[in-house]
Amino acid sequence: MANWWEAAPLVEQTQTDTAGGNWWDAAPLVEQSAPQPQADDQSGYGSQMFSGLMEGATGALGAPVDLMNNFVVKPAVSGVNALFGTNIKASDAPLGGSSGLRQGLAISPESDDSGQQFARRVSQSVGGAIVPLAGTAQTAGQLAAGLGAAAGGGVVGATAQQLFPDNIGAEIAGELLGGIGSGGTIAGIANRSTRKAAERSIPSIEQLKQGAKDAYEAADNAGVVYSPNAIEKLKSTIVPELADFGYRPDLHSGVKNALDVIGELSGKNITLKGLEQARKAMGAGYKGPLSDFRKENNAALKKVIDSFDNMVTKPGRGDILMGNQQEGIRALQQARNLWQRSAKAEQIEYAFNKAKDRAGKAGTGGNIDNTIRQEIDKVRQKGKGFTVGEQRAMAEIANGTAVRNLLRLGGGLSPTRGGLPLLLNAGAALGTGGLSLAASGGGLAAKMAADHSTKSAVDRLSALIRSGGNAPKWTTGELNNRIVEALLASQAASQSDK
Asked: Which are the contacts of 286, defined by CB distance < 8 A and separation ≥ 6?
């Protein structure tokens, strides 16, 4: 049977100038069309920013596992391999880490376009901040503040990444600098309006003094007069108590002074004004707590003054000879309260000004945070009449909060801390590709934030004292907390798996 191609018609060979040439050599050439670019769903700002958000969110969620794996597990495995000659491999994608969390997500490869790279890096910081804010932000304002701080850190971090490729240190310093700067600006604007509102409702030291003066006059105008019987009952109460306490005139001079003052009142009719003057004279007997005897003196003296106050504010039958008892005692208590608040606020003001003078004498003023802490702590240890809440506020200033201490630590790199940090950072600039200057800038921002935070804490303490413990909301504390959470999370998210 014949093959089908044997019946195909013959095509005559085209004559060419070249003898014996093939017919297809004379076929006209057809230019090949240039390949058309294929649409890439993974390119573009939208895709890169979405991918950055996903990387940031998974980075924050997986940061604890990633950090443990990178800084604990892997070094431990390397140590075991070096000791025993083994070849154990630590996982590059541990369970619960960011790499594992990203599996199955529509995350695009990083673009070659520098603008898209920049947008993706900023989105990573924002995505990392979303994780804690989703659970802690109580208002839209707190959410916006946290995301704004993270975005500011991301912008400067991305800039550092472009200027210093593969330099993780520069990127970290840039993110901290940008985050602290933008976060501090946002918090400052919010706190400023809150602070102004608080100041309008809290009396100044001068207003407290004037109020106390007016109240003392009102108490005196009530015309209250105490009988000698009141003083005799007071003496009969105090003497047994001091005997049980172990009172000794030669060791407890402040108590002896108080008893002498009370003795001078014996057998006399006394007005509220006279009793208040006697109380102030007794209060002069408090001693600084430098020895056990002085501590005993102060404890015993407090018993005497408390008994004296009880006699004045809770008089018994026959203790009052004349006058408006209720109005007089009420005005006297108000006067004491206002005067004590003004005196305590003045102690804080004096300590703050002394701290500024000490820091200024140091040259650069770079240790203002330290001197404020030290001077406020002196008031806490030696001051009298401070409430539990006021003592707690002073302890927080002296010891610092976790965030304030972290900023203070970062501020150690600030050039304003003295000539040595400035010279070291400047001298290392060439060798580090500018990283030392970035670190110096980050240290400056951290120090400024720490100093401002400590000063604001002193302002809040003064407001607490002047308001009598009822200070209105002074700062947007929850907003500040959200900003710090956002900064820490965004930083962890961008660096945890690197």
From this structure: 254, 297, 298, 301, 384
Q: How far apart are the first and last CA of the chain?
A: 74
Partners of 320 in beta bridges: 226
C-alpha span between 145 and 136 (Å, rounded)? 13
For residue 498, the SS3 value is coil
- Which pair of structure tokens corresponds to residue 93? 């994608």
Can you give 411-430 as a three-state secondary structure string? HHHCHHHCHHHHHHHHHCCC
Q: Which are the contacts of 163, defined by CB distance < 8 A and separation ≥ 6?
A: 170, 434
Per-10-residue mean pLDDT for the chain, 498 residues long? Answer: 58 51 59 50 79 85 81 84 86 81 85 87 82 73 73 76 73 67 63 66 90 90 91 89 86 90 91 90 78 80 89 87 90 91 93 89 71 92 86 91 74 56 49 50 70 85 88 56 61 58
DSSP label at 92?
Answer: S
Beta-bridge partners for 322: 225
**CA 306/CA 301 separation, integer angstroms:** 9
Name the DSSP letter for residue 103. T
CA distance 385 to 394: 13
